Amino acid sequence: MSIEEFREYCLSLPEVTEATPFEKFSRGRFTILVLYVNGHMFCYFNIDDFTAITVKCDPAEMGELKERYQAIGEPFNGDKRYWISVQLGQDVPDDEVKALVRKSYELVKSKKR
């Protein structure tokens, strides 16, 4: 899946917005695109190196996902209790990547505003 296909999928979810809020922190070394629902992050990734994404995950599902897929691991700069990283192009099929994004979206969307 290309970065544009992935981005289009994320933006197809209702009420999703995107931004690059961490420009000051990276000082031009990389650009992190963050996807939001209800003003809260549910997915982010490096635009300059689209090899992994970070998504929110139900803590009860993390262990099973990490056992099932080698490409699922610790998040990039996120709380390990609630976020996972998915290495793209490895053993997680594109449909499963989209399902993980959708679950992350639903977790964040279901939170009270």
Description of the molecule:
A hairpin with a 2-residue loop joins β2 and β3. By secondary structure, this protein is of the alpha+beta class. It has one domain: Alpha-Beta Complex (Aspartate Aminotransferase, domain 1). A six-stranded antiparallel β-sheet has the order 1-2-3-4-6-5. It is globular and about 35 Å long. The chain is built from four helices and six strands, in the order αβαβββαββα. The N and C termini lie far apart (32 Å).
Q: What is the makeup of the main sheet? A: 6 strands, antiparallel
Number of helices: 4
In the CATH scheme, what's the topology name? Aspartate Aminotransferase, domain 1
CA distance, first residue to last residue? 32 Å
Mean pLDDT, all residues:
92
Helix content: 25-40%
- The outline comes out as globular
CATH class: Alpha Beta
As a percent range, the share of strand residues is 25-35%
Major sheet: arrangement of strands = 1-2-3-4-6-5
Domain count: the total is 1
Write out key terms for the chains shown.
alpha+beta, 4 helices, Aspartate Aminotransferase, domain 1, 6 strands, six-stranded antiparallel β-sheet, 35% helix, globular, 113 residues
SSE diagram, text form:
Blueprint: H1 3-12, E1 16-19, H2 23-26, E2 32-37, E3 40-46, E4 52-56, H3 59-68, E5 72-73, E6 83-87, H4 94-109
Antiparallel strand pairs: 1-2, 2-3, 3-4, 4-6, 5-6
Gist?
With 113 residues, this protein is of the alpha+beta class. Helices cover 35% and strands 26% of the residues.
